[in-house]
Each structure stands twice: as C-alpha cells, then as structure tokens.
Design a protein that fits this description.
The complex is a heterodimer of chains A (433) and B (327).
Chain A (H helix, E strand, L loop, with lengths): L1 H18 L2 H4 L21 E6 L1 E2 L2 E2 L4 E6 L2 E6 L5 E6 L4 E6 L8 E3 L6 E5 L5 E3 L4 E3 L7 H33 L6 H18 L4 H29 L4 H23 L12 E4 L2 E4 H23 L1 H11 L1 H6 L4 H27 L5 H16 L4 H18 L8 H15 L13
Parallel strand pairs in A: 1-10
Antiparallel strand pairs in A: 1-6, 2-3, 4-5, 4-7, 7-9, 8-11, 12-13
Helix pairs in contact in A: 1-7, 3-7, 3-8, 3-10, 3-11, 3-12, 4-5, 4-6, 4-10, 4-11, 5-10, 7-8, 7-10, 8-10, 11-12, 11-13, 12-13
Chain B lengths: L2 H12 L2 H19 L7 H17 L5 H23 L4 H20 L4 H4 L5 E2 L3 H5 L7 E4 L2 E4 H25 L2 H11 L1 H6 L4 H27 L1 E2 L6 H14 L6 H25 L8 H22 L16
Antiparallel strand pairs in B: 1-4, 2-3
Helix pairs in contact in B: 1-13, 2-8, 2-11, 2-12, 2-13, 3-4, 3-5, 3-11, 4-11, 8-11, 12-13, 12-14, 13-14
The chains are: A alpha+beta (433), B mainly alpha (327).
C-alpha cells in the first residue's frame, strides 16, 4: 500500500504542474465550431442541405458551393451572413465542394486538404456542412519558415506520443506484452476528458485530474481482471497479444456505444499565439509544457526512486529481480496504474488539440508502436526518443509528400530502421531474439 | 421475430461469397500462422494487393480479366518478398508489428490523392468484374434449393468462390503432408532444431509467406468481384482481426478449420444480429437502438477472440498438441 501512496504523491507533483496552468486552460468550452444547421424555415418533409461559411466568426458572402448527388447537381451561393442552403430531391448522401476561386483574397480553408465534404440526409431531413475558413495557408511560405513550423508541429506530436508510448514501453518491459489495447486507453482519456470538461462542465484542471485517476483505475482494472489471471495461467505472450487485440475491439465499440460516433470538441476558444513563423495556441503550448514535465517526472521516477529502480530491474530480468526480493507482481500492478494514468493524460492532451472520438486511439496506435519499436522495445527513454522521431517524421514528411501519406511515412521509417538496426535506436541487442 | 427469415438469412450467410473470401484469407493465414508459426497481422494487405492488382490490371493496363488475375498474383509475390525479406529474420512479435504497419502503409498508398488516377483514391475502383459473368455457363433463371434462392449470376459466383475454397483446402492438405510441409511444422515447433538439420529456415518462411499470401490474394479477388468494387477502407486492420477470429475459431493448424471457422463465424454473426434486433424491436433491450446492435456485434467478435485464445487456442477442430503459441 505504501507503494500506491508513493505513486499518488508522484502523481500529485504532476497535478501541481497542471494547476499552475489553470488560467490558460480554463477557457469557456462553448460556442466553438457549432455544427448545428442555422435555423431554416423548413417545410416538413423537405430535405435541406445547408451551412454557414465563416471566417474569423463573420459570415462570408458570395462563396459558391457545388452540391452533387444522385441525379442532382446545383450550385449554392452564400448570403450576406455567410449562410447557404439548397433543397435536395431524395434522401441520399450528397457531396458538397467549395469553389476555391470564389474565396476572398488571402482567405483559405482552415483545413486545405478538405475541399469536399459529405452531407447525409438519409436519416435526418437537414444536413449541415461547414467549411471553416482561416488565413490562406496556400500562400507559399519561405522554405525555412515552413521547416520551423513543421518542426514545431513535430515536437508537439512527438511529445504527445511519448507520454502514451512510455506506457506501452513500461508494460512491455515488465510483462513482455505488446498491448494492442493501448490505443483504446488513449481514446478513453480523450473521451472521459470531454465527458468531465464539456458535459459535466467542470473546470479543465479538475476534469483533467478526474480523467487521469479514471484512466489509472482503468489500467489497474485491466491488470487485475484480465492480465494477472492470464499470467497465472501461464498463457503465452503471443496468445496474450491476440487477447489484447480482442480487448481493443471490445473497448473500442463499448466507447462507441456510450459516446456515439461523432467527434467531440474538447478545446475551448483558441487563444492564438504567434512565435516567429509559428501559429499556435496557448492550449498547445501548455500541453507541450505539461508533456515535458511529465516525461521528466517519469525519467526521475525511473532513475532516482527505489520503486523506479525496481521497475527497471523487473524489465531487465524479472526472475533475477524476484530472487533479489522485489515483489514483481506488485511492480507490474504499479506499472499498469502509471501507464494507465500517463496514457489517459496523453489522450486528454491529444483531445484538447486534435479533438476526441472513439477512433482517436486506434488511429495513433501504430504510431505508438512505431515509436516504441524505433526506440527499442522495453526501454522507457527509448520510447521517448522514438516518439520524437516519429513526431518529426510525420510532420516533416508533409513538406515533400501529400498530407494523407504522413502516417505512412512514419511506418515506412519504422520498417527501414528495423532493417538496419532491429534492436531500435536505444535497444539492447539480446532482446531481438 | 420471424424465425423463418432468420433461418434463411443464416443459411444465406453459410454460402455467401464474402464468407468464401474470408475463408480463403483464413486458409492463407493458416499456412502462415498455423503451420509455420508466423504472426502475420497484415493479411488485409495481401487480400488488398490481390484485389487492387486485378482491378488495376483490368482498368489501367486493359488486360483481360484472367490475365489481370495472373498479374495480381505476381503483385502478391512481389509484395510478400518486399515484406518478408526484411522482417522474417525478426522475432515473432516484431514481425507482428511490422506486418500490421506494412498493411496500413498499403492502405494509405491506395487511398492517397497522389495515385488516385490509378487507384481511384479513397473512392476506390469499380466496373472491372463484368467479364467474370460472361464466363457463366449456367442458363438464365432462378435456382431454388431449400432456403436458397439464387439467380444464375449469384449461383455462378458461389460455385466459383466455394470451388476455390475446396481446391485451396485440398492443396493445403497435400502441401502439409509433404516433406516440405513437415519442415514448415518443424519451424513452428523449433526453428533452431530445423536450422541444425541444415535447412534454410528463412527461405522456407519466405515460401510460406508467399503461398499463404496467394490464398489471401485470391480471397481478396473473390471479395471485390462479389462487392463489384474495391475500396481502400475494406482493408483496415479490423479485416485482419476478423480473419484471425475465423481461423482461431476453426483451429489454426487443422485443414478444415478455416472453412468451418468461417461458416460458423458468419452464421453466428447473422444470428446474433437478428436475435438482438428482435429483442430491441420488442423492447427487451431498452438501452440499445438498432444501429447499436451492429456495434454490439463487434464487441461480441472481440470477446469471442479473447475467450477463444484463452480457453481453446486450438479452436474447434485443432489438436492442442499441434498448436503451441511459441513465445
């Protein structure tokens, strides 16, 4: 029990770091990206596709939107408030493409890769389609500036991945399990963060603390209910890996049933910050700071505390650790709790910056594995290095490759590194078998 | 709820071409995992390469369908070589991560805008399979056998799909009782022992990867001919995991395992869906609505996978001695 106490003390250090960032975090989480269709004087039974095109909160007039569907092809134009709507004949899915040439000068899509969105009136009678505008990012930046922007984004992503990847790495190190259900722990953190911060409307710090505790409890439960009994039954590691795949499917769809499939907006109003060529938000900066503090705390925990040293001893050789009096099962339990908490925190931070959905975790799971494998399976520091590499590769690749291939680039790097240095950047050779 | 309709749907699933496609992929996986012990989590990519190879062969290279299928098989061999040469020397769990990563890379490459002129991007490709139905020797009409009621095209597709399943099953049985198959099983049991007998383990693993991949590719072709389009989103990791469930359900190292596993799996899917939908309709499950029933099925698939691996890793037909998940 003293170990658990110590653990919470360590966690408390983290939370103080969080609390010091209160004012920046506690921005109202309302009226951002309201995806509701503006009030249309709908005739019952009439099917309507519509939306609002806004830039900086103000509607933009004269934007042309091309709506196509089965036997339907029409162009809608926004009015003075930026609103547009069009009556469609049949219940179907329609494609809405924005005419980029009709945009005012210097204004572009906030997400330049999406010029076409889908409007689904198969279930409801109205469907809203939003094209958030922003500064025209198509303006060619000098290469140096682009590089700095991408490096910053890479650092941001890398830090987020690192916080979650350390969890995978600790679990692999102490139990040998490749946990495919780890992505769902990220989703869990992101969605519970949304639940407490947006639905229950708690201040973000409180919501964050509850989320991390809930995630830690989730980690503990997974170990107590599933993995510990399996270890007792001496189920093989590859078998356990497949069990974790089953678990990931179960948890993913349970989250879907409880939270439904839409994307949850976790972040409040963005407070934009400009550093040189980098456009970022206060939330991102706080999240990066918090990630760095967390990683440092984990590193200190692993290298300076007795418990951390015991954890590394179990990673290196669990039978030897057991022989020298370390309670291996106790360490593994703590590792699951810590991994759960860290991963929940990572999910929360990810959700704050990139929104949350039931698929959030499974989308980045392979990046996490890539990070852990790159760094060397089972070394916590390696996972951090690997995560930063993956973060940079993902973001820098879009300087050369199409944006939709950025995850592929990271995975190709993984395969290439395994070819040249199978033990990973910081791994030990005897682990590759 | 309508029991007769439920029964008919379940019977339909038994001989659905998609069931055959999954079975073919599972047969391929049984060569990889069941007989050689390779933890391949990229089976979706093998099926996808087969499907895209055929579709691109017809649409881009204007090949006749039969040649396009041949072209697709060549693509699979090349893909297996690219995947296998760097990874087959690695430990089993590394192989798992690399194959799943490679499968995702494949899917990203198929859906990127960059290659959309060939692959159709995220919309995929269609209108490549017409020629398949021109080979149909069966006279036009409706064919009714018991609960089944098929048009001549549906019947033709099923005959070919399940003919391929039968052929593949026999092939695997013949291969695995040959000296070559015994070496594969030896690799599964103890790689070092086989190596000490002077066998080139890496080379045998590569052959196993290629042959299992070819079965999966044929499964992918059956899949897309039956769907009459090919989309990148079909080849997600969930597809691979469903194939694993099918294989482990039947028994990974048994000849009839994939066939039985596939049929039982899809019949169970239909039955659970119908029963749950029925219960929702009469208000016994007030916390669920109809779309959620579909989601609940995935939870059941996940649970089935977990319970199978824990309590009956040899599957319905397997021999427990035959299947050791080596660590």
């Amino acid at each position: 029990m003293t170990r658990i106490g110590l653990l919470f003390a360590a966690a408390a250090v983290l939370f103080t770091a969080l609390i010091s960032g209160t004012s920046a975090f506690a921005s109202p989480a309302s009226n951002h990206h309201q995806a509701t269709l503006h009030s249309v004087d709908a005739v019952p039974g009439q099917l309507i596709v519509g939306g609002t095109v806004k830039n900086d909160g103000k509607g933009v007039a004269g934007i042309k939107l091309h709506v196509t569907g089965p036997n339907f092809d029409k162009v809608a134009t926004t009015d003075a408030d930026g609103k547009w709507q069009i009556v469609v004949p049949t219940k179907a899915k329609y494609k809405v493409a924005i005419d980029l040439t009709s945009l005012p000068k210097g204004v572009g899509l906030r997400d330049p890769s999406v010029t076409e969105r889908e409007a689904d009136v198969t279930v409801t009678d109205t469907a809203g389609v939003l094209f958030p505008l922003g500064k025209d990012t198509r303006v060619i930046q000098p290469f140096g500036d682009q590089l700095i922007v991408r490096l910053f984004a890479g650092l941001n992503l890398g830090l987020l991945l690192a916080v979650a990847a350390i969890g995978i790495s600790l679990i692999f190190g102490t139990t040998g399990l490749n946990n495919f259900a780890h992505g769902e722990m990220v989703s869990f953190g992101a969605l519970f963060g949304w639940l407490f911060a947006v639905v229950f409307n708690l201040p973000l710090v409180i919501a964050g603390i509850i989320t991390i505790i809930a995630s830690a409890a989730f980690g503990y439960l997974q170990d107590a209910v599933l993995w510990k009994p399996l270890r007792k039954r001496r189920v093989g590691l590859n078998q356990m890996m497949i069990v974790s795949i089953g678990l990931s499917i179960v948890v993913r769809y349970v989250l879907l049933i409880f939270f439904s499939g839409d994307t949850k907006v976790l972040s409040g109003v963005f407070q934009a910050v400009k550093i040189g060529p980098i456009d970022t938000t206060v939330t991102s900066l706080w999240s990066m700071g918090l990630a760095v503090v967390t990683l440092a705390a984990v590193a200190l925990f692993l290298t300076r505390t007795r418990l951390g040293k015991a954890t590394r001893a179990v990673s290196d050789n669990s039978s030897l650790a057991a022989a020298s009096g370390i309670d291996v099962e106790g360490i593994i339990r703590i590792v699951w709790v810590v991994a759960g908490g860290l991963t929940g925190l990572s999910g929360l931070l990810y959700g704050l910056q990139f929104q949350a959905s039931w698929l959030t975790g499974s989308q980045i799971l392979l990046l996490l594995f890539a990070a852990v494998t790159l760094g060397g399976l089972g070394t916590a520091l390696g996972a951090t290095v690997g995560a930063l590499i993956i973060g940079f590769v993902v973001e820098l690749s879009s300087l050369i490759l199409p944006v939709d291939l950025k995850y592929a680039a990271a995975l190709i790097i993984l395969i290439v590194v395994l070819l040249v240095r199978p033990q990973g950047v910081l791994g030990k050779k005897q682990r590759i078998g | 709820m309508d029991w007769i309709q439920t029964f008919n749907l379940a019977a339909g699933a038994l001989f659905d071409p998609l069931t055959a496609a999954y079975i073919l992929c599972a047969i391929g996986l049984s060569v990889h995992f069941g007989y050689t012990g390779l933890l391949n989590f990229g089976q979706a990519a093998f099926a996808g390469v087969g499907a895209y190879g055929m579709a691109v062969g017809v649409l881009t290279f204007k090949l006749p369908l039969l040649l396009a299928m041949g072209f697709s098989l060549i693509c699979i061999v090349v893909f297996a070589l690219i995947l296998g040469i760097p990874t087959l020397r690695l430990r089993a769990d590394y192989l798992a991560i690399v194959t799943i990563a490679a499968a995702e890379v494949f899917r990203y490459l198929m859906s990127t805008i960059g290659f959309a002129s060939v692959t159709g991007g995220s919309n995929g490709l269609s209108q490549f399979g017409y020629e398949f139905y021109t080979w149909n020797p069966i006279a036009k009409g409706q064919y009714v056998f018991g609960p089944f009621n098929w048009s001549e095209e549906e019947l033709w597709l099923r005959i070919v799909a399940f003919g391929l399943v039968g052929l593949s099953t026999v092939l695997v049985w013949l291969m695995m009782r040959s000296p070559w198959g015994r070496i594969l099983k030896g690799i599964r049991e103890d790689e070092d022992a086989v190596r000490s007998l002077g066998k080139n383990v890496f080379f045998y693993k590569l052959q196993s990867l290629i042959i299992g991949g070819l079965f999966a590719g044929i499964g992918g072709m059956v899949y897309v001919i039956s769907m009459s389009n090919v989309q990148p989103s079909s080849w997600v990791t969930t597809f691979t995991f469903m194939i694993w469930t099918v294989l482990l359900l039947g028994g990974a190292a048994s000849v009839l395992g994939p066939v039985a596993g596939g049929m039982v799996f899809f019949v169970m899917l239909v039955l659970t869906n119908e029963i749950l939908s029925g219960l929702v309709a009469i208000g016994w499950l007030p916390f669920l609505d109809q779309p959620q029933v579909g989601q609940l099925r995935f939870i059941l698939i996940g649970l089935a996978l977990m319970l199978l691996v824990i309590f009956r890793p040899q599957g319905m037909f397997g021999n427990k001695k035959e299947l050791r998940f080596n660590v």
